[in-house]
Amino acid sequence: MKHASFQGLDSHLCQRIRNEHRFTFQHDGFPVVHESIINEEESYLILNFKEGQTLDNYWKTIRKGDKIRKLKELLCTLAPIFEHLRHNNLVHCDIKPSNILVSESDHGMHVDLLDFGLTLNTNEDLHDRQILFPLGYAAPELVLNQLNCIDHTSDLFALGIVIWRLFAGKLPLTHPNPSIFTNLQITHPIPEHAEIPKELFRILSKMCFKHQFSTSPNRIPYEEVQQYLLAAKDQRYRTLPEVLNDLNELNERTNWFNKVLFGNRGRN
Fold it and tell me: What order do you get walking across the sheet with 100-105 strand by strand?
């Protein structure tokens, strides 16, 4: 159950609950709204219960040698969820480890996507809308509140940051100064990390592609900023199955390398 009132600091949470109650799904991996009470003073939302643990906690149980295999399984399970969002013109806008719930059984991995409080429908008029973006995961178009530029690739961008964090154990491009932190999110490419295989990093770089502004975007005409953002989005993967296809090729090349390596050692 979620509850917030418009009094005091809960007002923004109340708005998120009001937005979330619009989205109930009859599709595996999504929340179902059982009941909602929305009035001028407060908001209640009762959702179906989900088993599992958050993705970051689940990932701590994975051995290093199993991480690529488990990543592939995770993305295969997430793919129909992301595709359902894409086909319905929905952008979640809050993809992060705490909003991805993972459980495993004899039938395999199961994933649920949670918290649709920031979700936007790109078929609706987004003019003058404001959104509280998750700093550290959000794509530049969200950080700059250019909501007319968001689409499915904005969620794929955030998923790329999630994967980077799973392997590196921290967020990329952080800084204690909020303004510098925000600038890093807008314009700097994600860095390489010793715990991220180079070929996986190339996939993440494409998921998280962004324009590298040479000056602050607030000093550039709005239309020009929009052009830069749209051009950068065109360089990203369009769908999660495209990401999976390249990840499968990475696995195949890794398996081939291991066979050659260990085969040669066996003959020596």
Answer: 53-54, 100-105, 108-113
What is the Cα–Cα distance from 264 to 259, expressed in whole angstroms? 8
**Number of domains forming the structure of the chain:** 2
Amino acid letter, residue 219: R
What domain range includes position 39? Answer: 1-49
Listed in sequence order, the residues at least 6 apart from 244 whose beta carbon sits closer than 8 Å to its beta carbon are: 72, 75, 76, 79
Judgement on whether residues 35 and 147 belong to the same structural domain of the protein: no
Distance CA(69)–CA(170), nearest Å, equals 21
109 and 170 together in one domain:
yes
Indicate whether 176 pLDDT > 80.
yes
83-128 confidence digits (pLDDT tens): 999 999 999 999 999 999 999 988 899 999 998 888 998 988 777 6
Lowest model confidence (mean pLDDT) among 19-23, 74-78, 241-245: 19-23
Stated pTM of the model = 0.88
138 with 216, same domain: the answer is yes
CATH number of the domain that 83 lies in?
1.10.510.10
Would you call 101 helix, strand, or coil by DSSP? strand
Count of beta carbons in the 10 Å neighbourhood of residue 169:
11
The answer to whether position 260 is within a domain reads no
Q: Which H/E stretch holds residue 201?
A: helix 198-207
Instruction: Tell whether the model's pLDDT for residue 260 goes beyond 50.
Output: no
Q: Compute the mean pLDDT over every residue in the chain, rounded to the nearest whole number.
A: 86
Contact status, residue 113 vs residue 99, Cβ threshold 8 Å:
yes
Give the Å distances, CA to CA, from 245 to 172, 196, 203, 254, 257. Answer: 25, 18, 10, 14, 19
